[in-house]
Amino acid sequence: MKMQILAVALFLLFLLNTNSDVRAECPIMCSCSERHRTVDCSWRGFRHLPLGLQRNIQSLNLTHNRLSDLDHQLSSFTHLRILDISYNRLLHFPASLPRSLWEINVSGNRLHLLNKDDTAYQWNLRVLDLSVNKLERVVFINNTLPNLQALNLSHNKFWTVPTNMPKNLEMVDLSHNTLVQILPGSLTRLTRLARFYLHANRFTMVSEGAFEHLQGLKLITLGDNPWACEEAANISHLLSWSKQTTAQVLGCPCHTWHTCGEAQTSNTGSRHFDAFTLSPFFFGTEKPSHHFVEAVTTHFWSGTSLLNTRGDQTGYRTMEEQESSLLTLTPEVLHSSSDGLTTLSTTLRTSTLRTRSVKRPNQKLNRDVSSGQTAKSELSFLFCCTFLLMAITNSL
């Protein structure tokens, strides 16, 4: 008899363990998936990490809140794959983030520096978005971030291309900075780089051979830079490379060849602010090999950095204003010009930028449905326990 009672007790403990994740509750003011592995706490005005987050969550969206410090607060979430903490009030990269992460979005904060220790142990990271900050310098350690494929550093304050970037990168966006030079050896390791966005900077020239190691390059954007076209000795090697490369070049320096892209030379005297008019995807370039790279290249840059954005810069707003809306360019219609080249008409519009955190009108409904399913599971569990206890009592 004792053996039967022990067996029943062990069975009840097993049921309790297997149903613990079902009975887990979603944090207050957040919406969760059915099993609470995907949690959306965006646009809630949180100043601190919300209470009640389960340790086994895989995706956490905290975008558009008022978080100023997340140091050492997420290290115990060892199953976390996707973390979106964009558009908060962070002054530095959060310390001790879990090493299980595949994607980190810290855009739209107030970061000035990325230290070498911030990403030293992120072996699994594939996408890192640091755009729309105040970064002037990022430091990477050799042989770290081995799986990183997409790095977004656009809309910051870099004056030189970062050195020692992870060698397996397939996409780098450095557009909308104040870049003036590429130091020798900065790009030597990036043999897999396929997409390189350098438009809307302050380049007047680049050193000879700056791009020669980019063997996998398929697309590069050079428009909206003040190229010193009158200085033939300094610009001729770049013009020659632009003509000979097999990669698509959007915004060809000095508007020399149509094959470089649909350029529109501004009337700026001897210095040319060349711009392009088509998004790379309109040119039939191949999509990134990894879906994470595609996700990054389409959610933020589709309207602001892939199209000509000189008009966008004039309407560029402060960090606080960007939390509500951004000025974007929207492609409306493709048409053919008289010379047979394809051009793109664009119109300006103001749209709300909600990175992976679009408010859903049925968030309360999702929460109610999840709570109802949890309640049903709990009732079934209690019924089962009651039935087994009655059986034990009868046997005694």
Automatic annotation (TrEMBL):
The keyword Transmembrane does not apply. This is LRRNT domain-containing protein. GO terms for biological process: neuron projection regeneration. It comes from Danionella cerebrum. Residues 1-24 form the signal peptide. Keywords: Leucine-rich repeat, Repeat, Signal. Residues 25-59 form the LRRNT domain. The keyword tRNA-binding does not apply. It comes from the Eukaryota. Pfam families: LRR_1, LRR_8.
